[in-house]
Amino acid sequence: MVLAGAAFFMGDYHNDVYRKLLLWVTLALGYNFLFGICGQVAFSHFAFYGMGAYSIVIFLFQFHLPLPIAVICGIALCVLFALAVAIPSARLEGFYLALATLALGQLFIVVLNEGGEITGGTGGIANYRLPEIFGLRLRGPWYTAVIALLVVATYAVLARLDRSWFGRACRAVRDNPEAAAAMGVDVARTKVIAFTLTSALAGVAGMVYAFVDNTVNPPIFGIDNAFLLLFMVIVGGAGRHAGAVIGATLLFLLPFWLSPIVGHHQALVFGVLVVLAILLQPAGLVGIYDRLVRR
Amino acid sequence: MQDFFELAVGAAASGCVYGLIGLAYLLVLRPTGIINFAVGEWAMLGAFGGFVLLTKYEWPYPLGMVVALGILFVIGGSTERIVVRPLVEKGAPLLAPILALLGMVVVYRETISSVFPPDPMPVPYALGMGRLEFGPVGGTYQSFFTIGVTLAVFTGAWFFFERTLAGRAFEAVALHRRAAALMGINLSRVMALSFGAGAVVAGLGGLLVAPNTSAYYLMGVPLAIQGFTALVIGGVGRVEGALLGGLLLALAEQLTVRYAPIPSGYAQGVPLVLLMVFLLLRPTGLLKAKG
What we know:
Chain A is mostly helical. Chain A is 73% helix and 1% strand. By secondary structure, chain B is an all-alpha fold. The interface between A and B is large, with 40 and 41 residues.
């Protein structure tokens, strides 16, 4: 309520920034489940975010499917690709998933750029609007309320999963796969499910994103943002929902402060920041907070 | 047929570069267990070293090459010293140095992109422009130079790991760190050397491929993917695996570009498909580790 209510007191510009912040937080929450809780490194989150955004636009406005069916088709597409990458990669220990998803993320951009009519090439797709639902068209702050709902729903799903047997299985797989296997946890299956689920959540976030700017184009969904997402979770504190929220908020807002000082080289600052975080404060900002509270 | 041989020589040259990147992964992976995502960026640094020393200052090729690779050795070694060793000494989980190196990927890339303009930069051919032909087999000087240098590097690496005491020390560290340390092997030196050597080999790959692709600050990630795929195809257990995998990958890519009826950009999908197929069907790679 508070998250959504805040939107009604903002101007257009701040509303836009606020919506994107909420979307980053959603993505960071999902990625934190995969990386922080299940211990897997992947770079495909933005590819799935983009897959969700592009698929809903294409299904709605080129195939003219009704909204619910377009949503289901989009999610199915994300799940299909996630399974195709995760099943081979999870068979082995090591960082095969990281490299495979890096390749997937790279390829996704190529497909968007070369997709011709269907994906609109380098210019992407624009000039479409959210279809009416029961004769209502959500606009302005009301659409921001939809995004707030997305954040809360994502958090609710992930927090529930985290507390269930599946969350414990994920943590066990992260901390000690051999012990987890000995306790009867199917390590490979746990990894595949965690990856597929968080990828689908990213896809849903992408569908919501598609109607924020009412345009989708390739640069947003590139590898750079996938790195940034990882950095957000590390700096905030991997494995903690609060960490994902703090990290996403901080690194999203940092460029607004930094740009007068360093111009367009904020990515360099992020890189240095994340290396320092790993060296000096592996538990992230949440770890600092914990230590202060304990004193 | 002529066409096919031309393609094969070109593919062999790119395959050699992938093999070098794969070897750079392997040099770090073997003694430390760390998958080092920064190898692609090291290759990018090698290419930019070539641009600065050979194009801008017009140094003679051998001198420029040696100095550029020397700088990369220092970069690799100091990366290990500053970013990796503190974590290993603290007993952090293996994921920590891997993530720190991932951060370094961005640091390297953004440093280059803030120092140089964002356009592709030219790097000269080692032996100048020109073609060499043996009967039906023909290719550019640069292709044959790349193949020759790569074969020399792989022979050296094979000799080092199989025949010298220092190579055995690397192997021992890979097998059991504590036991190796107890046998009097200097762990820190082995790790620093493995990163230094990895950076040199990756940088060499970048320098060799740069005349064809130009030095470009985004060239690292595709090379990192291709090198890793080469490693998975060939198998991580043997040094020669990386080269074999690189050659197969490059051949598959070139055949796709040449004969498949799809836009050539989609050739970037070839490593991903091969990666998936090999992980599913033959996760140990083509060459098995010696028992």
